[in-house]
Design goal:
359 residues; Peroxisomal Thiolase, Chain A, domain 1; 13 helices; alpha+beta; 37% helix
Length: 359
């Protein structure tokens, strides 16, 4: 599907960086029993992923507080009253509970901090793997285009500590090369939170959303999975998510089929926006790692010099990764007014979404 927009803007961002810095070297130290058994040389993770370090929340930190902090900072930094928010969407993989919608928790937290949104606003969650925030942005954009609302807020917070700790424990208890390879993507995971404010043109400022292109390849839905499953030890506590959590990725399959899907979506993206490839001044891709980035940019015939990188020191923060990278790129003046920017997202499913924005 492809869409064009006339009067929708990415007005601004807010974010919260998790405080605990975990180097890849430290993470490999935790994997020492596995490395010894499999004869894996230290340094392999950084060489494979390009990730030097990532950030995690403190143990026991209420992750949703990160989302509320990012949303509060976003509203405080921009001249759009919280009362004007007609839609609040929570788009992260992490959720407080199966129900109610975690967006309700965020809305309540905002009210406690003096940013009460309109009680008539739509407040709900969207789930689309690493594309949850971008999907939420489009939900808001569509309602703005229909004239139903004037502004909306999309929020997400992700945590990687728990799944990493569970994966390390499982690997060290029963090392195998297949399990190690399937866990590499897990070990890239970082934590963080982000908020994106989307508005109509009635508010001064912002970056004009020109269009979006999406494609899906659901035949590959098993390539990357993260969830819970029954623990093989029947004596384990049934309600302990750390014991039942699992994450599994086929890295070569994700790379092969993800890049193909990206190339096809890029063609739709250019046709939708009316831009030629050389007209795109900057790109920001989902922050997966070095191999995926270099392979994708080569396939799109894009220069690495025009693409912003944040994964080296933040890791892959899932739904937070791309919008957080955009916020940092804006702060560091990698993105300048008038530039044509492609936000290129890909997520498990497989799904791909690309947004064209005039900065």
């Amino acid at each position: 599907m492809s869409y064009r927009y006339q009067d929708v803007h990415l007005h601004g961002f807010g974010y919260a960086l998790a405080p605990v810095i975990v180097s890849t070297e430290e993470l490999e130290d935790e994997l020492a029993p596995t490395y010894a058994k499999l004869r894996v040389a230290p340094g392999q993770l950084e060489r494979m992923t390009g990730i030097v370090e990532r950030r995690w929340w403190e143990p026991g930190y209420p992750v949703i507080e990160g989302a509320i902090t990012a949303a509060t900072r976003c509203l405080a930094a921009h001249a759009v009253p919280a009362a004007d928010i007609g839609m609040l969407v929570y788009g992260a993989v992490y959720r407080e509970h199966f129900e109610p919608a975690t967006a309700c928790h965020v809305a309540a937290g905002l009210a406690e901090r003096g940013h009460a949104i309109d009680p008539r606003a739509a407040v709900f969650d969207v789930s689309n793997a690493c594309l949850g925030v971008l999907s939420g942005v489009i939900e808001v954009a569509n309602r703005i285009a229909l004239g139903q609302i004037q502004a909306g807020l999309v929020v997400a917070a992700e945590t990687a500590r728990e799944i990493n700790e569970a994966s390390i424990a499982r690997l060290n208890a029963d090392p195998s090369m297949d399990r190690f390879v399937g866990s590499v993507a897990t070990f890239t995971g970082g934590s963080g939170a982000v908020a994106v404010l989307v508005t109509s043109g009635r508010y001064a400022g912002g970056h004009r959303l020109e269009g979006v292109a999406t494609r899906a390849a659901p035949a590959h839905h098993r390539l990357c999975r993260w969830g819970v499953e029954p623990h093989p030890n029947a004596q384990a506590p049934a309600d302990d998510p750390a014991l039942r959590a699992f994450a599994s990725t086929d890295p070569s399959g994700v790379l092969e089929h993800g890049v193909k899907l990206g190339v096809d979506t890029w063609a739709d993206f250019l046709a939708t926006t009316g831009w030629a490839s050389e007209d795109v001044d900057r790109t920001i891709c989902h922050q997966i790692g070095a191999t995926h980035r270099s392979t994708m940019l080569r396939a799109l015939e894009r220069s690495p010099q025009t693409d912003f990188v944040a994964y080296e020191h933040l890791g892959n923060t899932g739904t937070v990764a791309l919008p957080l990278a955009a916020a940092l790129a804006d702060e560091r003046e990698f993105l300048l007014p008038g530039q044509r920017v492609g936000l290129l997202g890909i997520g498990s499913g497989l799904n791909c979404m690309m947004l064209g924005v005039t900065w």
